[in-house]
Amino acid sequence: MSKLLLIMLMLTVWASAHALQIDEERSIRTLFESKHSVSRAVHAAAQQLNKEDLAEGRFTINEEAAYEKAMEYLRLNLLLDASGHPLPGSRLRQRVVLEDWAVINAGQPFPFTYRNSRYNYEVTLDRPGVVMIIAVSYPRLFSMMEPVVWHVKGTAELTGPMNTVYTSLSS
Amino acid sequence: MKQILVFVLFAGMLCWMMFSPIYKHVFIVREALLQKEVDYLLETGASGSRGYIDDAMVEASRSRLEQAGMRRDQIRYRISASDGGVATSSSRPLLRGTGLLLTISYPYERLFQIDSLIGIAVPDSEERMSASGIKMSEYVP
Hints:
The complex is a heterodimer of chains A (171) and B (141).
Chain A (H helix, E strand, L loop, with lengths): L1 H44 L5 H5 L7 H16 L18 E8 L7 E5 L4 E5 L3 E10 L9 E10 L14
Antiparallel strand pairs in A: 1-4, 2-3, 4-5
Helix pairs in contact in A: 1-3
Chain B lengths: L1 H44 L9 H13 L8 E6 L17 E9 L20 E9 L5
Antiparallel strand pairs in B: 1-2, 2-3
Helix pairs in contact in B: 1-2
């Protein structure tokens, strides 16, 4: 009888160790996926040039278009609906929250250092760019693990002619 | 009779306990591999020098996944452009500002079969796991 109890105990330990392992693997994968989604979103946003300024030879980001594209690409990559809730097929279960969004446009002194002390994020931009921080909650399969919320950060700079000087632009 | 029944149930439970986590692990690794492949193809395909994912890239990707133990003819690629254009032709690359969409899928095969031992409903072996992504092309002619 005591052996049977021991076996049951071992099975429980074995099963919970595996549950923890699977959850940890999945949570790291969720982090990677969110990071790639944020990177693609800011990458798309940083391509939104302001056409009027471009006609005058200045490289600036169209802020509305950048925000729109960033949200669109984030939604398509993470499979979210318009309010940020996951669609069927998404690996997430809870709403994705946009925590910070900044467009650093021409007119700033470059190199420009963006700081966000709340999320402990610092990045130096050499040209106009966008910064995005989102919060992603990982849906645990088992309750072996503490709840996880990732603050995923991403930055992209304007891609364009490398030697254009952005500093002395006055708007 | 009762003892035989207990033995059968217990043996089934034990087998499931021993092997189910390993199949789950294979599933997680396969999903991760598909996602990595999507990331890689989008990174190279949407870069400034390409703007497309052509057949040669898909074949190379199939070979990479085959090395990880997947069956090459079962891997399915769906490549499209956000403006509805052709995204697989090197002669007509997607221009800067157009999104390149990619979905790779692979059947579950019999990975979850062992769960039916303890009465969990398992996905059909023809159903597919998939990984997808969209990235904006950087290509400028």
